[in-house]
Amino acid sequence: MSHIVVKDLSKTFYLSERTSGLWGSVRGLFDRKTKAVQALKGISFSVEPGELVGYIGPNGAGKSTTIKILSGILVPSGGTCLIGGRTPWKDRIQHVGRIGVVFGQRTQLWWDLPVIESFELLRDIYRVPESVYRSTCAEMIELLNLESLLNTPVRQLSLGQRMRCDFAAAMLHRPDILFLDEPTIGLDAVSKLSVRKFIKSLNQGHQVTTILTTHDMDDIEALCDRVIIIGNGEILCDGSLAKLRSQVSSRRYLKIDLKTDQFQFETPGVSVLNQEGHTITLAFDPLQISAATLIQKITERYEVEDLFVENPPIEEIVAELYRGAR
Ligand SMILES: Nc1ncnc2c1ncn2[C@@H]1O[C@H](COP(=O)(O)OP(=O)(O)OP(=O)(O)O)[C@@H](O)[C@H]1O
């Protein structure tokens, strides 16, 4: 049975429109105009237990709105959502006890308290039994290398250190579902790697069902077998990275290092994308010519030092899908 089932979920925000100037403000007191923003236009998807799904889309697409509804913070305008049999905004108390949420832009730790005291407060709020708290806390301290940070007030932590503590805080009550909203935003390369390693170990070791929103395509490549792309409040694509690639373009690249810089090659389905000295990048359509045939044709005519076939970078594919969604 699916862990998360979302059906026809919609959310409309109503914003009051202000007219500029003093007269506009006075008129607004009597004649208030509102504007509807349809953040979600009936989205549906389901997530199986233990899946790690990337949820991506351009700015304003509806990602945070979805995560807020799934975590019970917002009530949708229409549609249904069942998570482990619970409706998040109706069964809020049971629901928050089963989920962990990490927002990259916000912390759930107490700014002025040492990290360990925030952990203890969360233990009390979630009513985590002492033995479970002790063993989970010890595991998180070890996995995230937190020992030296425990007595530091949160405000004195670097962003990377704070994110590691936030991950531990989100796991203290042993949730079986994690919602991660931009968990690597603003982190340096080393911290990003350690956060990714941690997300992977939670998902694989503890079978935590995870939905991850991110603008960092390296997060997606490193972590997600499946991606859901949302644009303008609608789901544009749902499937594996391979499906995503094939939906947008079948184009692939062949990069070759030749002994010569004299290169002339014309074959249907193949174009020279770039040449820098002895290194040439060809784009080819595998439906017109296979990689094996292309390599054979080139090696018949040129002495090749090195070559490799590449898929288009995921950024390129996602940018193409986003363009269609704006
Ligand atoms: N509280 C709110 N009141 C009014 N409009 C809102 C509110 N929250 C979100 N919106 C609007 O809903 C739409 C979707 O916003 P949302 O924050 O879900 O996008 P997002 O995909 O998370 O974007 P980003 O990548 O920039 O964080 C946007 O048009 C946004 O302006």
How would you describe this structure to a colleague?
This protein has 326 residues and is an alpha/beta fold. 36% of the residues lie in helices and 29% in strands. It is built from eleven helices and 13 strands. Helix 5 packs antiparallel against helix 6. The longest helix is centred in the middle third of the chain and has 18 residues. Bound molecules: adenosine-5'-triphosphate (ATP). The site of adenosine-5'-triphosphate has 12 residues, from strand 1, strand 2 and helix 2.
Helix content: 25-40%
Number of helices: 11
Low-confidence stretches: none
CATH architectural category of the largest domain: 3-Layer(aba) Sandwich
Distance between the termini: 35 Å
Q: Can you write the helix and strand succession as a string?
A: EHEEHEHEHHHEHEHEEHEEEHEH
Spatial shape: globular
Going across the major beta sheet, what is the strand order? Answer: 5-6-7-3-8-9
Question: What proportion strand?
Answer: 25-35%
Sheet of most strands: 6 strands, mixed
Give the beta-strand count.
13
CATH C-level of the largest domain: Alpha Beta
Helix vs. strand class: alpha/beta
Query: Per CATH, what is the topology of the largest domain?
Result: Rossmann fold
Layout: helices, strands, pairs:
Blueprint: E1 4-17, H1 21-30, E2 33-47, E3 52-56, H2 63-70, E4 78-83, H3 92-96, E5 99-103, H4 115-125, H5 130-144, H6 159-171, E6 177-181, H7 189-206, E7 209-213, H8 217-223, E8 226-231, E9 234-240, H9 241-248, E10 252-258, E11 270-276, E12 279-284, H10 291-301, E13 304-310, H11 314-325
Parallel strand pairs: 3-7, 3-8, 5-6, 6-7
Antiparallel strand pairs: 1-2, 1-4, 8-9, 10-12, 10-13, 11-12
Helix pairs in contact: 5-6, 9-11
Adenosine-5'-triphosphate is lined by residues 13, 15, 37, 39, 57, 59-65.
